[in-house]
Amino acid sequence: MATFLYLLSRAAFRRRRLVAVIWIALLACAGVGASMASSNVTSSFSLPGTEAQKAVGLVETRFPGSSPDGAVAQIVLKAPASERVSDTARKATVRDLVEQLRSDPEQVAAVTDPYEGKNVSPNGSTAFVSVTYNKPPGSLPDATLKSLDDVASDARESGLTVEVGGTALQAAPEPGIGEVIGVVIAAVVLVITLGSLVAAGLPLLTAIFGVGIGISTITALASTFDLGSTTSTLAMMIGLAVGIDYALFIVSRYRAELAEGHDREEAVGRAVGTAGSAVVFAGLTVVIALVGLAVANVPMLTKMGFAAAGTVVIAVLIALTAIPALLGFAGRRVSPRTAGRATAKPNGGVRWARFVLRRPAAVLIVGLLGLGVIAIPAASLQVGLPDDGSQPVSTTQRKAYDLLSDGFGPGYNGPLVVVVDGDREAASATRATLQGMEGVASVSPAAVNEAGNTAMITVIPTARPSAVATERLVHSIRDATDDDVLVTGTTAMNVDFSQRMNDALLPYLTLVVGLAFLLLMLVFRSVLVPLKAALGFLLSVVAALGAVVAVFQWGWLGSLFGVEQTGPIMSMMPIFMIGVVFGLAMDYEVFLVSRMRESYVAGERPGAAIVTGFQHGARVVTAAAVIMIAVFSGFIGSSEPMVKMIGFGLAIAVFVDAFVVRMAIVPAVLALLGHKAWWLPRWLDRLLPNVDVEGEKLRARLRSAAQTVPPGDPNDRRQLSRV
User: Which of 30, 42, 519, 689 would bridge 139 by S-S if both were Cys, CB 3.0 to 4.6 A apart?
Assistant: First the structure.
C-alpha cells in the first residue's frame, strides 16, 4: 500500500492542476444537485419488526385517511385565574381559533374542537386544540407555521395564555456561533502547531472543501433517501474533525521529510506513502464503525451512519490526492524553518514518553483509577427519547407541555394508542382490561373502523412520557393482552426504540471491535497491540458516557452547557457514541503507534521506539485532539438536544482517549510488555497479508533504486517514480 500511495501522491503533485479541476468539478456538481433538490425534505421514523410499527401499519390499512404520519400541533389555552375556558366569551375566542385553523384545507387535515372532543381539563381552566396536517413533521411551509403563530397570537390578545407544542414545530437545527468558534480554534491550533499560515490553512481548507462536497451530496439525495436534517449536522461534525486531522498528519509528515533534505515531490511521496497509509486504515476503522450502525436495524440510524461514513471517505481521498496537489501549489511556503537542521533538544513528547517509561505501573494505575471515577455515573444510565418536556423552559413547546401537564396530568403529553385487531366485543373487553390497570389515568371509548374489524383506544398514563412508570405500563398492557392487541403511539415507539438499541448494543460492539481488531492486526503485525487498543477504547466510551450521565441526566454543571431540563439519555446515544468514538480512537492509535512500530521494525528497542513515536507524533496527535475537541464542542450550543448531547459526549471522549488512554495508558502498557507487545505467532504472520503501513518495503525499494542510479543522473527521478 505504501508504494501505491507513494506513486499516487507524486502523480497528484505533478498533475496538480488536473487534480484541482477534478475536485472543484465534484464540488460544483454536488452544489448544483443540492440547489436543485426539494426544500421540503422529510425524515420518517420507523422501527421494522417492532409491535409499535406493526400497529402503525395496521392503522394505515384499516383506517384509511387517518394520516398517522402527519405533523400535529397542540394549541394549549389557559383562562385567567377565576375564569374558565368554557365561559361564553372564552368559548367564542377558542371556536374562532378553530375556524381560522380550518380555513387552510390544503395543509390542514383535521382540527379537533376542544368542546366537542372533550379536551377541557376537569377544573375547566385549560383546553387544547389538536391540529393534524397533511405533511410530515419538518416539511410544513413557512407560511403554514406563520399562520399557526398568528392564530395563537390573536387568541393571546383576548387574555388567554396560549402556547403551541407538538411535532409541527420540528425544524432543522440552525447553525450557531459555537460551530464557527470551533473552526476558529482549530485554525489557531494549526497555526501554532505548524508555524505557518499557509501550512495551517491547507488542512482547514481541504476539510471545509470535503465537508462542502459531503453536505451538498446529502442535501441533493435527501429527498430520494429520506435523509433528515440531523444527518447533515452529524456528517458535518465528523467530516470537519477527521478532515482536518487527516490533512494535518500528512502535512506534518511532509514537513518532516523536507527537514531531512528531500525535494518537494519526493517529500510528498514519502509523506503520503507512510502517514497516508495510516490515514487509510484510520479512515477504514471510522467507516467500519459508522456503517456498522446498520446492525441496529433502525433505518434512520443506518442512513446517518452511511452519510457520515461517506463524508469520511471523501476526507481520506482528499488527504491522499488534493493535499499533495495543494502542496505543489504552495511551493516552499509550507517548508519548516528548521529544514536541514537537526534539533538536539528533546521536545515535550520525548520528555513525557521518558517520564512514562520510568514509572509505567504508576501511570497505568493513576490513569485507570481516574477513568474509573469518571465512569461511575454510567452505571446509572437511563435511556429514552426526548419530548417537549426536555425543551428549554423559554420555548413555547415547553410551556405548552407544562400547561398540559398542569391541567390534565403529565400523561396527556404522551398518550398510548391501543389497536385491537378484532370486533367490537373484543374492543370492549380490551377496554375493560385497560381501565383496571395500574398507571392508567383514563381510557377513551373504542373508535371502531367502518368494517367493524379494528378498533383504536387511547390510554392516558398517570406519569410523563419519559418516566419509567410509563415504560412499565406499556409492557404491562402487552403482557395482559393477547397478540391481537397492539400498543403504539409516540411513547410506545420510544419504548420499542430504546429496547431495539439495547438489544443491538452487544452485536454491534462485537462486530465493530472484531473487524477493527483484524484490521489493526494487519497494521501492527501484533496480537496484543490491537487488544490493548480495543480495551482502551472501551475505557474511553464508558468514561464519556459517565460524563454524559452526570451532566444531562443528573444535571451536574448542566447550566454551564445549556442543559435546562435533565432526563434520560437518548436511546441512540450509547450505540452512536460507541461507533464514532471507536473510529476516532483508532485514529490516534494508528497515527501514534504506527510510528512506534515503524521505529521498532527499523531496529530500535521497545522503549526507544516509544520515545521515537512520541517525538514525531505527540505534538501532532495533541493538536489533532484539540482540534477535534474544539469542533465537537462547537455543537454543544445547538438547539437540537441530540446534537448538543452528541457534541458534548464526543468532545469528552476525544479528550479522555487522546490524553489519558493514548498518551498515558498506551505507552505505559507498551513499556510493561516490552518485546511481547509486538509478538505475532508465525503461522498467523504467514496468513496475514503485509500491507506495509510503516513503509518498510517502500524505503527498501527507494534505497535500491537510489543505489542503481549514479548521483545526479537525470534518470534518477524517473527510476524512483517506477518503484
Answer: 42
CB atoms within 10 A of CB 43: 22
Highest mean pLDDT among 268-282, 343-357, 360-374: 360-374
Query: Which residues lie closer than 8 Å to 26 by C-beta, 6 or more apart?
Result: 213
Higher pLDDT, 711 or 292: 292
Q: How far is residue 248's CA from residue 275's CA, in Å, rounded to a whole number?
A: 10
Segment 557-610, tens digit of pLDDT: 888 887 877 778 888 888 888 887 887 777 778 778 888 888 888 888 999 999
Give the separation between CA 718 and CA 10, rounded to whole angstroms: 12
Which residue, among 272, 200, 188, has the nearest Cα to 12 in the 3D structure? 272
C-alpha cell at 299: 433505518
Q: What is the pLDDT of residues 624-660, one digit of tens each?
A: 888 888 888 888 887 677 778 888 998 999 899 999 9
Record the cell numbers describing residue 698, joined without a space.
Answer: 517502500
Return contacts of 171-177, CB within 8 angstroms, 24+ apart.
171/138, 171/229, 172/138, 172/229, 173/229, 173/230, 173/233, 173/638, 173/639, 173/640, 173/643, 174/639, 176/634, 176/637, 176/638, 176/639, 177/637
Question: What does the buried/exposed string (b/e) look like for 277-313 if buried means 16 or more CB atoms within 10 Å of the residue's CB?
Answer: bbbbbbbbbbbbbbbbbbbbebbbbbbbbbbbbbbbb
Residues of the chain with CATH 1.20.1640.10: 1-36+176-344, 347-388+502-692
51, 486 Cβ separation under 8 angstroms: yes
Q: What is the mean pLDDT of the chain?
A: 85
Between CA 477 and CA 480 the distance in angstroms is 5
What topology is assigned to 347-388+502-692 in CATH? Answer: Multidrug efflux transporter AcrB transmembrane fold (1.20.1640)
Q: Give me the count of residues in the chain.
A: 723
pLDDT of res. 720:
46
The H or E element that residue 588 is part of is: helix 573-601
Enter the CATH code of domain 1-36+176-344.
Answer: 1.20.1640.10
Q: Indicate the CATH number for domain 72-169.
A: 3.30.70.1430
Cβ–Cβ under 8 Å, residues 349 and 650: no
